[in-house]
Amino acid sequence: MYSLERPVQGRSSCSKDRLGRKRRTVVSSLTEDEELTEILKSYSSNKVTTTKYSFLSFIPKNLFEQLHRFANIYFIFLAALNFVPVVNAFQPEISIIPILLVLAVTAVKDLWEDYRKHKSDKFINGLVCEIYSRKQQMYVDQRWQDVHVGDFVRLSCNEIIPADMLLLYSSDPHGVCYIETANLDGETNLKQRQVVRDLPRQGSELTPENFHSRIECENPNNDLSRFRGFMEYPSKARVGLHNNNLLLRSCTIRNTETVIGIVVYAGHETKAMKNNNGPRYKRSKLERRLNVDVLWSVVLLVIMCLTAAIGHGLWLRNLKDTSFLIPDTTSPALSGFYLFWTMIIVLQVLIPISLYVSIEIVKLCQIFFIQNDVDFYNEYMDSRIQCRALNITEDLGQIQYVFSDKTGTLTENKMVFRRCTIAGVEYPHEENGEKSKYIFFLHNTTFSIREHGGATRRQASSRTATSAFVQGGAGGALPEPCKMTSSRPQMCMCLLKRSETDSMRLNCLSSPLFLLRDASMELTYIVDFFMALAICNTVVVSSPNQPRHVSRTPLKSLEDIKMLFQRFGLPRFSTLSSPHTTESPRSFTRRLFSRGKAASFTPRLDGVPGEDGDQGGLENSNGGEGPPSEPRADELIYEAESPDEAALVHAARAYRCTLQGRSLERLLVELPGMGSLAVRLLHILPFDSSRKRMSVVVRHPLTNQVVVYTKGADSVIMDLAESPKGAEQSDGRQGHIREQTQKHLDNYAREGLRTLCIAKKVQTSTEYEIWLKRHAFAETSIENREELLLESAQRLETNLTLLGATGIVDRLQEEVPETIEALQRAGVKVWVLTGDKQETAINIACACKLLRTTDQLLTANCDSKEACKALLLELRAEVERGEAAEGTSGFTLVVDGRTLDFALQEDLKGDFLELSRRCRAVVCCRSTPLQKSHVVQLVRDQLRVMTLAIGDGANDVSMIQVADVGIGISGQEGMQAVMSSDFAISRFKHLRKLLLVHGHWCYTRLANMILYFFYKNVMYVNLLFWYQFFCGFSGSVMTNSWVLIFFNLLFTSAPPLLYGILDKDVSADTLIKLPELYKSGQNSKAYLPSTFWLTMLDALYQSLVCFFIPYFAYAGSDADMLSFGSPINASALLIILLHQVIESRTLTWLHVLVLVGSALFYFSFTLVFSVVCVTCSPPTNPLGVDKLQMSQPLFYGVCALTTVLALLPRYTHQQYISPSDTLKAALMDQLNPDNYCRRMQHWNQTQAQSKARGLIINVEDLDIKIPDFILPKELKECRAATGSVLS
Question: What residue spans carry the region label Disordered (predicted)?
Answer without folding.
Answer: 601-632
